[in-house]
Every structure is written in structure tokens, then in C-alpha cells.
Amino acid sequence: MTATPGTVGPEARFHYVAYGLELASEVEIPGLRNCDASVPSYMIQFRPVSRSLDGPATPETGFAVRHDATRCRIRFADGTAVDIDALERIVSIEPLEDATIEDAAGYLAGPVAAILARLEGHACFHGAVVVIDEEAHVLCGPSESGKSTTAAAFAREKLDVMSDDVCAIDASGNDLQVLSATPRIQLWPDGAAMVYGRDHGLPAISPPWPKLYLDLQETRRFRAEPARLGGVWIFAPGIDTVQPLTGASCLTSLVAHAYLPVYSTPDMRRHTFEVATTISRTTPVRLLSSSLDPGGRVETIVREHRKERG
Amino acid sequence: MAELTLETVVQISDGVVSATVADEIVILEPDSAKYYGVEGAGVEIWEMLGEPRSVRELRDGLLEIYDVTEERCERDLFGILEGMKDDGLIEVLESR
Questions:
Q1: Of A89, A93, A90, A119, which is closest to residue A105 (Cα–Cα)?
Q2: Shortest Cα distance from B21 to chain A (angstroms)?
Q3: Which residues of B touch A280 (CB under 8 A)?
Q4: Which residues of A touch B24 (CB under 8 A)?
Q5: A58-104: per-residue pLDDT in tens?
Q6: In this structure, how many other beta carbons lie within 10 angstroms of the beta carbon of residue B89?
Q7: How many CA atoms lie within 13 Å of A165's alpha carbon, on the beta-carbon side?
Q8: Which of A264, A267, A280 is closest, CB to CB, to B21?
Q9: Mutating which of B17, B26, B39 best tests the A interface, going by the most A Cβ atoms within 10 A?
Q10: Pairing of strands A42-46, A90-94
Q11: pLDDT in tens, A14-25
Q12: DSSP secondary structure string for all residues of chain A
């Protein structure tokens, strides 16, 4: 979708970038990557937003969405409401009365940024993204299968990370380019302990939330530039370490990991299907045993990637 | 809804997309967000539906490929097409 970037008002004091989109805000938003001031793709405003949405939040995502080609309204489980107007290029967010900016930031840097990427025409898949030898590898799997924990293990091994939850792919050029998300990995305390030990010292995202975060800019392990897609890894139980996926089962496995397919428009679903088809024909897609620990996953993925590349 | 006959002309529904991978076809019906896998004779039927076809044309095309009786071919073909129509993958363009 193409649209004219929004006007930069005097209130655009902070500038950020996620999935190639420049975002501006009147207040500082932790968890997003700063960039130089320019004409932003979207202006983020904190203001009242209608919370009325048909239908309950889904148990899987914890939020409800109403979506069309140019407008998206989201109501999160805690009541925080977001309205994305893709024509006016404005993201309006209304946190709960007693919420902190960190609470809202978690939503903006996570699902909201991913939905913006999708409105821009990028195919989005539910998966973390890591970098090996300048190529992006997507780590897919069901919720709590260890995608973020594995991404953190990549960072520990001094390999770059581009995203901890959503892989946005720009398929407009000659090859598939993965766009970097935000420079934080959100981790459950158990995941943090698994990678960094009980004395991990990682800060909480926001005091009421149990999740912690790893700052990838601080550890210099965030890759901000796009990277060519080099492989997809789907965590799966009951397989012997690594198993290549080809043909129809490869394509259906990929589309099964599309980001929020229920909340997509038919055009978005078609585009995601076409990108998944291209991936299944051009990129190694493999199942990886989910019984491996995060370190074992890193070792296996790096070894298989280098074997593939000779 | 009118029953399919040999003279019915069918086509792939507007907006439906598909991909051939190995010897199978995966089809997306984007309004319902449902995916379908097609193999065997379904692959030939789907490929012939690259343009609108009468059921008779589809049957004749299959009889050139498969060594089956006309009766058996028609029975299987109607079964597959009814399923595709119910799932919104194909639509009737003309019914005579």
C-alpha cells in the first residue's frame, strides 16, 4: 500500500525506526531504535481511543483486532486501545489511566509495529530473526517454544539478532529481504536463566509484567540493516535434530506461521501466501528438534547453515 | 444452488490463489483464510481450470490422462468439483 507520509508537527520530538518504518512521537518510547529526525512514516500520539471492538480478545494473542486495508483498531487484554490510521499515518494509543509509558511501549514495539509493517505491504511471519554470515534466519514455532530464548542464545554467542517475535519480509525486490524490528529480546525469567544463568541481571520491561528484556544495542548484537533471507527453522517435537521440509508440507508449514492471519485482509493473506510460496521454492526450510536446549539449537543452526553454504 | 451438469462452465473463484509445489497444489481461499491441498486428479483439474471450462471439457481432459471408464471419471469429477464449489474455490460461470 502506498500513502503520503504524515506531516511532522512540532510535537515530533523523538524519532524511531522499526521494520524500515520511521516513527515519530511527542514522548520518549523505550524499546524502539532511535534514528535521525526526518519525515516519519507514522506519528505516534497518546490520546483517547475508542475501546469498543466487536468480539473478545483471542486467548492466543490476548488482543482483539479489527482490520481493513487502511485502518486497524486493537484492544489489548489490559484495556489499552490502539487505532492505526494508515491514510492519515497516525498511530493513536490510549494506555490505561495508571499505566506507565513502558507498558504502552511494549505494545508499540511489539504487535503494533508488526501490524504497521503489514499495512506497508510486508509479509509477516511469527518468528524471531537471527543473522549468520550476513544472512537472516527465521526461527518459528508455537508460543513458548523458545524462539526468543534461542535468539538470546545467538546474542550470547556474539551473533546478531534482528527480531525476537515477528519476521517482516520485503519481497518487492529481486530477493527476499528481512527487515529488522526492535532492539530488545523479551524473555521470561526461566528463559533468561537458561541462557545467562540465575544471576542474569536483566531488567524487567515494566514492573507489573513478569517479562524481562535483553537490550541488543547495549550488547552490540542488534542488526539494524535488512538482510537477505537465508533459512527458516521451525521448532518441532518428535524429530531427529534436523529434517528438511519440501513441497506442499513446506508451504503449509510456512503459512501456518503467518502473523495474525485471522486479523488479515484477503489481500494480505494472498501476499503472505505468495511470499511463502517463494520461500518454499528458494530457501532452505527445516524442522529443528524442539528438545534441543538453546545452545544446542544455535550450534545446529550455524553448523547446518555453513554446511549448506559450503 | 444449481447442480453441476456436464454443460456447466466453472472457473476458479475471484481472489483464490494457488501454488504448485512438487506434485501437489496448495490453494488459498483468502476470504476464509483456509488452505487446501490438492493431489492426484485434482492437480490436473486445477491446472485445466487455468481458464473457464465446462465439466464435459474437464472430463474429456481427464479421460485422456487416466485409464478409467467414463462413468467412473464423471462420478469422481463431480465429487471433486462439488467439494471445490462448496469451499468457494471455484464458481459457476454458466449453467446450461
A1: A93
A2: 5
A3: 19, 21
A4: 247-248
A5: 655 667 777 777 888 888 888 888 999 999 999 999 888 778 888 88
A6: 22
A7: 22
A8: A280
A9: B26
A10: parallel
A11: 999 999 999 999
A12: ---PPPPPPTT--EEEEETTEEEEESS--TTSEE------SEEEEE-------SSPPPTTTSEEEEE-SSEEEEEETTS-EEEEETTTTEEEEE--TT--HHHHHHHIIIIIHHHHHHHTT-EEEEEEEEEETTEEEEEE-STTSSHHHHHHHHHHTT--EEESSEEEEE-SSSS-EEEP--SEEEE-HHHHHHHH-TT--PPBSSTTS--EEEETTTTT-B--S-EEEEEEEEEESSS-SEEE--HHHHHHHHHHTBSSGGGS-HHHHHHHHHHHHHHHHHS-EEEEETTS-HHHHHHHHHHHHHHHH-
Is A252's CB within 8 Å of B28's CB?
Answer: no
Band the pLDDT of A289: cuts 50, 70, 90.
very high
**Which residues of chain B have a Cβ shorter than 8 Å from any chain A Cβ?**
15, 17, 19, 21-26, 28, 30-31, 33, 35, 37, 39
Write down the ipTM of this complex. Answer: 0.83
Q: What are the grid coordinates assigned to A219, written together?
A: 550488547
User: Residue B1 carries which side chain, given as an amino acid letter?
Assistant: M
Own/partner pairs for B80-86, CB < 8 Å, 24+ apart?
Answer: B80/B41, B80/B42, B80/B45, B81/B4, B81/B10, B81/B45, B81/B55, B82/B4, B85/B4, B85/B10
A251 → closest Cβ in B15, B21, B39: B21
